[in-house]
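FAQ
Q: What does a multi-component entry look like?
A: The components come first, one per line:
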Amino acid sequence: MAVKKKAAVAAKRMVAAAKKAPVKKKAAPQAAAKKALPAPIVVKPVPAPAKPAKAERPKKWTAGAELTDFFPHEMLREETIGVCLACILDVFTRYLGMAAVTAQKQMRAHQPTLDELHASPLGRPYFRERGDTCPHCHSPGKWLAQLKLVRIEGGKATDAARRELQKSLPTSKGQYGFLDQKSTGREAFFQWLEHAGREFDFDNHSAIIAATRLYLERRYTDVDWDAEFTGVRVIRRSREVPEGWLKEPNRLVLSAMLFDEVLAIQYLFSRSQRSGGVTFEGRMTLQELVSRLRGSGFLRHLGIQASMPGDILEQLLDHLSGGDAALKFHYILDRRDFLDKLAALKSARVPKLKLGASAAPL
Ligand SMILES: [Zn+2]
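Then the predicted structure of the entire assembly, as tokens:
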């Protein structure tokens, strides 16, 4: 009886509330009461994933800009290589017999090949160690210049921006040079994995989060990940997020499939450091990872049907990397410092070279 009484009181309250509530169309009182009588079912709306903030990048070159501002960070590799003008001049004049003036003109046009810049160790006139003198001929600092080399991984995420940038970079005096290299998706992915993995010590949770962020930066290149990761301390999975991710104040909620993809990446990142990979779900051997990804439906989702863990890993890597798909690395060589140092030497009327006995021909 008491229950019935309570229900009646509640119903009365609802009717009263319905009467008080503003009604757009004038409804008959009976109809309003009918509508209000069943207990209202409150359906909590599933929050629609907010559109992630887009990363803003410059489109045209302006003085003072950095090449690295134009592209997603994880698609880039930047290095600085030392070059000794005395070594080049020595070869042009001493070994090739050029007059000093001709040699200077030739030096302005000097552009290294990628093979020369990637040799290990670097040969004369290039060097990596920054010191006061040239490691090859011991010439002092005024003969030493720096070449900046920015490598951009080709693809949808960078091609349009790179073409625009190349058009707007000053090249009339040889300030910038462009070099291309053929590669594959797999090679680019492994190089990235190896390069990015070196930054972390996977003994702590924050390193796993940081590594995950790098992967997301590479995977979704037009998102402002600074904004998405602001305040994020935890990354979770949820079947309620159909795809992608949902940003919440303190956490990032990934769709089940993206979370599993991230687990695989965490394993790949950390397996060279530890026996087994370190993931959000603890330390895993390859067998454990494969069982986990099979159980969740992730492998089926990707169409991976192999049964041996090694074969599964191979197919997983092909999926994550793009496999044998052709890809290009585009290099932008910043020669400005090289040209500035050359001009400074010219205005000082080229000091006479005093090369040490160790100086060898190029
Ligand atoms: Zn030198």
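Q: Is there any commentary attached?
A: Sometimes. For this entry: The beta strands are 76-84, 126-127, 144-153, 176-184, 234-238, 245-247, 251-255, 277-279, 282-284, 326-334.
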